[in-house]
C-alpha cells in the first residue's frame, strides 16, 4: 500500500466513525423531541383546548371605569378557566371595578358592576350583579380584632364539631374554608366607600374603629352568591364563623385548602398521623374434649378506665 495512503486510512476511519456517531446522536435527539412532543400533546389533551379570556393589561383600581386600554387577551387551558371569567371585552367597557385588579389578572364578572355616578347611599348600589348581602356577627377573636373595614377582602372559615366521622361513631371537629376573597360591603352601618367618592363621606378615624373593637360589637356584611349565602347561613347554625383578612396586594387566586381536623393538625405539627391507642390482648384457654387451644382476644376497656 502506498505510504501516503496508509497515513490517510486512520484519518478516514476517524471521520467515518465521527459521522456515524453524529448520525446516532441526531437520531437520539430526534427521538427525544418526538417523545417530548407526544407528552406535550397528551397533557394538552387532558387540559382541554385553550380558551381566550380577558385579562387586565395594566392595574385597575377600585372604582375605576374600564376602558379598552385596561384589557388584553390570554389563552388558558380549558381546565383552568373559571366559570365567571369574562370572555367578551365589550361586555365590560365603561363599567366599574368593584375591587383592585392586578396586571395580568383574569377579569371575573363579580369584580365588575355598572358605574355609580353618585356616591352610594344604599347597600344595594354596592353589590356586584348576581350577589346577595349577608350579615354575620364578628367579635374581636372571630373578626381579626375588629380591624376589618368596609372594602376589605376576607376568607370565611367554618369551625365546627358536628361533622360525622367516616366509618365511626360520634362527631369530629374541623376547620373548613368556605369562601375566599369575599368583599366586605359594610361594617355595622358603615358602607364601603369607592375611592372616587371618599370625599363625600366622613371617614371613620382610627379612634372610632378602636372604640368599636373594644365594645366587641361588629356586624360584617359580605357579598356572596345566592348559593353561598345559603351555605353560610346554614353553617352558622352548625358551628362558628371566623373571618381571615387578606392582603390588598394579593391577587384574587383561589387556593385549594383541605379541611383541618385532629389528624391533619397532628400531621402538620409532628409530621405523623395520630398515634393509635395501644390494644390490650388477653390469652384465653379453650378446651374441646382433651384438646387445648389458646385464643388471643382484644380486651375491651371498661367505662371510666
In short:
By secondary structure, this protein is of the alpha+beta class. The protein has five helices and 13 strands. Strands 5, 6, 7, 8, 9, 10 and 11 form a seven-stranded antiparallel sheet that branches. The protein has a two-stranded antiparallel sheet with strand order 1-2.
Structural topology:
Elements: H1 3-47, E1 50-56, E2 71-77, E3 96-97, E4 112-113, H2 123-126, E5 132-138, E6 153-164, E7 171-187, E8 190-191, H3 206-215, E9 218-224, H4 226-237, E10 240-245, E11 260-261, H5 262-270, E12 281-288, E13 291-298
Give structural notes.
It is built from 5 helices and 13 strands. The chain has helices at 3-47, 123-126, 206-215, 226-237, 262-270, and strands spanning 50-56, 71-77, 96-97, 112-113, 132-138, 153-164, 171-187, 190-191, 218-224, 240-245, 260-261, 281-288, 291-298. The strands form 4 sheets. Strands 5, 6, 7, 8, 9, 10 and 11 form a 7-stranded antiparallel sheet that branches. Strands 1-2 form a two-stranded antiparallel ribbon. It has 3 domains: 1-44; 48-115, Type Iii Antifreeze Protein Isoform Hplc 12; 131-276, no CATH class.
Largest sheet: 7 strands, antiparallel
Shape annotation: flat
What structural category characterises the helix and strand content?
Answer: alpha+beta
Helix content: 25-40%
List how many beta strands DSSP finds.
13
Spell the H/E element sequence: HEEEEHEEEEHEHEEHEE
